[in-house]
Amino acid sequence: AAMPLPLAQVQELRDRLSDRFRPWSRSAQFWVRAVDIYGSYKVCQLRTGFVKDEEEREAMWEQQHEIGAQKMYSLCSELGGLFLKAAQILGKPDLAPTAWVKRLVTLCDKAPSTPIEVVRDVVEKQFCKSFDEIFDFFEVEPVGSASIAQVHRARLKSSKTDVAVKVQHPGAEQLMMVDIRNMQAFALFLQKYDINFDLFSATKEMEKQICYEFDFVREARAMERIREFLRVSNKKPPVMVPRVIPGMISREVLVMEFIQGTPIMNLSNEMSKRGIDPAGKLAAMAKQKILTDLTLAYGQMILKDGFFHADPHPGNILICNNTEVALLDYGQVKEMPEDLRLAYANLVIAMADDDLLRTKESLRVKRSVVPPFCK
């Protein structure tokens, strides 16, 4: 009689089979859900075509957007990976219906976390040291977990201050490449049969940016460049940028200064807890200062340096010490060629001066520049 396989070998075999078939299973789940969402919108489009009353048509579309938002939320939250990043992009008022924005914006930092045992293994392999040699303490629960990595609060042996340790999810890069291929195929289908918009190019740009985001050495360089630029350009930088800890950088682990703050999407709740009316005058002044600081920081990064943080979704903006702003996550950055930077700067100045002739000229120059985003 054949001897049964030891339990450890059975588990290893099961894991290998699971890893091999996971991309196929994931692709099938995506297509079933995507076709369901697309089909429900086409049915609504057909039904509203028979309704003459404009208000009734609008009500039907509102109801459809609510249904579509819930289905999209389920797709992104349950599949995770690239779809969480897609939710961050779609969860913006200029890109999606209000119902979608309200639903998808809640997905920031909602990715499943990697178990602490795996996190320890990744850190030790990247730094060639044991966990206990590196840290005095390391919080088991992550501060936040996103599609590519999760962040833990910790303290280094050599330091008295807390640090943020960003650790990549093992296997996330391979799964994201599967996801992006499916999204690109769906984009081509939509372009061919339904919409007059170049979605495919947007997904290609997304693919390029995702590849960059898995290189934490590159992210550390970008963070330090922006931090130093804002420091030398202002008496006091308009936003805080975390300081990278020297010698604690690898492709899959990045250790930086820990910044304590409230995510901007939770600001109103935090104000209420402190007895401040979120709709009152004091809150309005605080929000205006926050907006001014962010605008100044982005104006300087884009128009003065041409190198800027390109992922300002709510999960990456913290409010510290009442109204100070911290900008996190430099995995996505863009560098503009000098002629395009100058064209944008001239356009902004012309618009500020209400100079129609210069505005037209700046737009003409800008259109003639082919922007090779992003280095």
UniProtKB/TrEMBL annotation:
CDD domains in UniProt: ABC1_ADCK3-like
A molecular function GO annotation: protein kinase activity
Domain of life: Eukaryota
InterPro entries: ABC1_dom (IPR004147), Kinase-like_dom_sf (IPR011009), Mito_struct-func_regulator (IPR051130), Prot_kinase_dom (IPR000719)
Signal peptide (from-to): none
Residue ranges constituting the Protein kinase domain according to the UniProt record: 137-375
Classification via PANTHER family: ABC1 FAMILY PROTEIN, PROTEIN KINASE SUPERFAMILY PROTEIN
Name listed for the protein in its UniProt record: Protein kinase domain-containing protein
